[in-house]
Design brief:
The chain has 456 residues and is mostly helical. Helices cover 73% and strands 2% of the residues. The relative contact order is 0.15. It is found in: Cell inner membrane.
Length: 456
């Protein structure tokens, strides 16, 4: 439910906010941006970002756990990511239409609710104890996260002055790796165990003993989701009682501008710059997901003395590097040309992945951590720059949803990498896929840099 809009002399909208107790004293401009950033609402919105980081990083734990328990190939284990990111792809457009006809806040609340439902599905899944049922639970979580990301990413870029939209989204995205680290820690201590690697422990057992131990290990996957459900419930209540600004483009005073889904999709399909951004985001998300999906596997392959719990330390390092990379990028972007910063990150990223492929020792795993640091600013910057190509802001919500749909790269690239690993017998060589992806990201920002020079 939204409050009645009032128009000031400049044609902006005052008091444009959703129902709630904690109020938002901002003025909205006709293009949907605000005269200033409401800091409490912005911080609360940014807290949503680590929540999908927790879910995504737990997938990296589950891939390793399920591979051993269900005796999966690298190709089959990667379907954890396919179920997860497939949910994003299928729900993003419907989520955008819900937001279009309601508010960003409504989208966030729906997302948190579905997220809780998906986490709860892990409990019956652990009793049925089949891989497909766990994939269904992950798909349900992804439905919630699709609503959450479709709402929060675009909203973060809109909830303040237009000239700070890219920086604002990058700052919100800086919270993401904190959630990723939390997810890995939950997985390390609540899912993984001490002793030999899980596949070795299972290999030493037979018959009922093996089945009982596998069931015990599946039960351990429930514990992180118990914690997550509690946090989500608290966040849901706080957001529900807080007023948020509308941040929708306006036409004729305080009337929201509208566009049909057909009109929007036709507009976006004709927008060459938007299409390039979608492709770059597809490749980036696929690369990020693939590297994180197989970092633990890479460590276990290169050092057979490691178990899953010890190998999880490399993922903690990867997400810490990701956070540092984002923080450094925010500083650089505030001082230098954004496209130059991202091009430099991309070139270094290609070189770091080639090192992983070519150097056959544990230093390759440490270089995977460096690679994660170079992921830092990519998603938020590509998202914001692609959103900026939508000149007609009536298409903003659906355009943001289509960018979120490019997350389907996370369902495709890891499967390709897993297939290459199975075919070649080399987990290390399979990382070559990610070098190609980073090169595409570099190509995208090189194009942006060249175009900006031509305009200048």
């Amino acid at each position: 439910m939204s409050a009645t809009h009032t128009t000031n002399e400049a044609g902006a909208v005052a008091g444009n906010r959703s129902f709630g107790i904690i109020k938002d004293p901002t003025i909205q401009q006709k293009d949907g941006y605000l005269d200033r950033t409401p800091w409490f609402q912005y911080i609360l919105l940014s807290i949503c970002f680590p929540m999908w980081g927790v879910a995504a990083s737990l997938n990296d734990i589950l891939i390793t756990q399920f591979k051993a328990i269900f005796t999966l190939s690298d190709f089959a284990s990667a379907f954890v990511q396919s179920a997860f990111y497939g949910g994003y792809f299928l729900i993003a457009i419907p989520a955008s239409r819900v937001i279009r006809h309601s508010t960003y806040k409504t989208g966030i609340l729906i997302g948190l609710t579905f997220y809780i439902v998906g986490c709860s599905m892990f409990f019956p899944a652990s009793h049925v104890a089949t891989y497909s049922v766990f994939l269904a639970a992950l798909f349900a979580i992804a439905v919630g996260l699709s609503f959450l990301e479709t709402s929060a990413n675009t909203y973060s870029s809109m909830i303040g002055p237009k000239d700070k939209s890219t920086l604002r989204l990058n700052v919100s995205q800086t919270f993401y790796p904190l959630g990723s680290i939390a997810g890995i820690l939950l997985g390390k201590y609540l899912i993984f165990t001490d002793g030999d690697a899980l596949h070795k422990q299972l290999g030493d057992l037979e018959g009922e003993a093996k089945a009982a131990f596998a069931q015990e290990m599946l039960q351990r996957t429930l514990q992180p989701y118990m914690v997550i459900i509690g946090i989500l419930a608290i966040l849901l209540v706080i957001i529900a009682i807080t007023q948020f600004p509308h941040c929708k483009p306006l036409r004729e005073g305080a009337k929201e501008a509208q566009a049909s889904i057909g009109e929007t999709l036709s507009y976006l399909a004709r927008n060459a710059a938007f299409r390039k951004g979608i492709f770059a985001q597809f490749m980036y998300v696929g690369m990020q997901t693939a590297v994180w999906s197989f970092t633990i596997r890479l460590a276990l392959t290169l050092d057979t003395s490691l178990n899953e719990r010890n190998a999880a330390n490399f993922m903690i390092g990867a997400f810490a590097a990701f956070f540092i990379g984002k923080f450094v990028a925010n500083l650089l972007i505030s001082r230098f040309d954004t496209d130059k910063v991202l091009l430099a990150y991309s070139v270094l990223g290609v070189l770091s992945v080639l090192y992983i492929v070519m150097v056959p020792n544990m230093s390759a795993v440490y270089m995977a951590i460096v690679t994660s640091g170079l992921f830092g600013p990519c998603w938020a910057t590509i998202y914001s720059r692609t959103l900026d190509t939508i000149a007609d802001k009536r298409h903003q919500e659906t355009g943001g949803a289509v960018i979120v749909m490019s997350i389907i790269g996370g369902a495709v690239i890891p499967v390709i990498q897993g297939l290459i690993s199975d075919y070649t017998g080399s987990m290390q060589f399979s990382f070559i896929v990610n070098a190609v992806c980073f090169a595409v990201v570099g190509w995208y920002f090189l194009g942006k840099l060249t175009a900006s020079k031509k305009v200048a």
